[in-house]
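Sequence, please.
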């Protein structure tokens, strides 16, 4: 595709939709020609940010009436399948906010349709574009830890204003299962989880999960909508030491292991080893802007989708496996997915 400005539509003006709106309006390589949201106030806000855009109450009407090269799907999760399939049918490339869908079946429908139509499908697992996570992934791929023992994630915060259609596992844990699999370099073979429901009226709002990988890595997830402040970080423990990345501050540290350090003894036994921590330089950047850069590069034909439909499908499957485990109070064996 040429370097002409891409015609883009934005479906959904919730929290992530408004972030997309801000980024799209600031780009000089795309034109935001249409937005869709049923609420008048978000529509009015969108038109103030992108005055040349046309507002719709229904994303399907937007797709039927506008000629679009690409569509950002940021509607509630239960609407992802209908909006994504309509966009695919029109031949538009799509970036679907995570989770790709609420169920494995709906996610697979989207992946199959995009594959059959030959359109770009990128899934919005934005944390992969966080500079601290990217630097961590680069170092792990280069062998900074000869052997990874555990990958532990923490993702907490207050209950979101508009999320009522799914629980914290599908909405938030999909971030973390994707990151854990990405850093581990493989898919898990078993999942176990426990969940509770405290303030959400319809779904779980806290989940502790455990993933077992064939190479011996254990993945641990702590996700909730109960923490009064946002917490986002990942810890990777391995043979040479420990990496810690904070998504919010975009910082990365490495604490060296004990092999080269002299032990200190407590009362003659229980040896402990004081690690040495170094801060690793990370160039800050807005992850969403990087995500959109990758998406539009793929749309123009210069690269494959940065986060594939298969990756998004796996994240949904693993989240649902943990939900099943929490419901039935038993480990769940992960079977290979049929991916187009």
């Amino acid at each position: 595709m040429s370097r002409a400005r891409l015609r883009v539509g934005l479906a959904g003006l919730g929290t992530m939709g408004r972030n997309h709106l801000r980024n799209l309006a600031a780009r000089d390589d795309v034109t935001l020609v249409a937005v869709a949201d049923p609420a008048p106030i978000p529509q009015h806000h969108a038109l103030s940010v992108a005055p040349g855009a046309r507002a719709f109450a229904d994303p399907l009407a937007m797709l039927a009436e506008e000629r679009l090269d690409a569509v950002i799907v940021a509607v509630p999760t239960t609407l992802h399948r209908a909006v994504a399939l309509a966009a695919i049918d029109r031949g538009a490339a799509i970036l679907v906010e995570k989770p790709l869908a609420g169920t494995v079946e709906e996610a697979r429908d989207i992946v199959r349709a995009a594959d059959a139509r030959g359109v770009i499908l990128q899934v919005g697992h934005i944390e992969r574009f966080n500079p601290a996570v990217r630097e961590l992934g680069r170092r792990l791929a280069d062998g900074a830890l000869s052997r990874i023992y555990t990958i532990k994630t923490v993702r907490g915060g207050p209950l979101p204003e508009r999320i009522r259609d799914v629980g914290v596992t599908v909405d938030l844990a999909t971030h973390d299962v994707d990151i854990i699999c990405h850093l581990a370099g493989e898919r898990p073979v078993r999942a176990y989880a426990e969940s509770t429901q405290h303030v959400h009226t319809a779904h779980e709002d806290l989940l502790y999960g455990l993933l077992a990988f064939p190479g011996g890595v254990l993945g641990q997830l702590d996700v909730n909508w109960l923490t009064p402040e946002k917490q986002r970080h990942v810890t990777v423990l391995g043979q040479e030491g420990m990496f810690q990345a904070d998504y919010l501050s975009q910082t990365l540290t490495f604490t060296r292991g004990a092999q080269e350090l002299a032990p200190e003894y407590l009362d003659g036994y229980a040896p402990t080893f004081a690690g040495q921590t170094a801060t690793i330089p990370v160039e800050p950047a807005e992850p969403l802007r990087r995500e959109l850069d990758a998406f539009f590069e793929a749309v123009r034909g210069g690269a494959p989708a940065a986060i594939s439909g298969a990756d998004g499908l796996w994240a949904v499957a693993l989240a649902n496996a943990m939900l099943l485990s929490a419901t039935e109070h038993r480990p769940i064996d992960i079977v290979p997915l049929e991916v187009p």
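The domain at 6-125+288-308 is CATH 3.40.50.720 (Rossmann fold).
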